[in-house]
Amino acid sequence: MKKSQRLQRIANLSHTAEQVAAQTLARCSDEVARYAAQIRELEHYRDEYLRQFERDHPGGLDGYRAQKLRVFVGRIDEALIQLVERHAQAERRREHERAVWADRRHRTDTLTDVATRARGVEEVNVENALQREIDDRSRGRSGMSK
Question: Is 139 a member of any domain?
Fold first, then answer.
């Protein structure tokens, strides 16, 4: 097996690893988007709940209802805090996977370039060998005719 063929096989394996890294990055990006959507939905729910509560109780609340409202909204806020933290963790994972993918992409490009150059060198060597053979045969024939 020629050197260029061995290098191309390595480049192909590297390309496969890059594709796996790209799929992992895509999954991480989807996760970040899901958390962002959940955060928006929960914030919207909380805000809409508070607006509706204010419309239903324009004169204010008694102590019991005010306490229930604070507890309920507090639970929503706790859930939001947890979602925001999960979102931040997902963003960190995504950035890590983006770096892994970029590294594998760079490695794949480099290996592909090396394999291409090796193929070019081999082609030049084959052409030079053929030219030498042609030159040798031409000298052999011209030396015989004298």
Answer: no
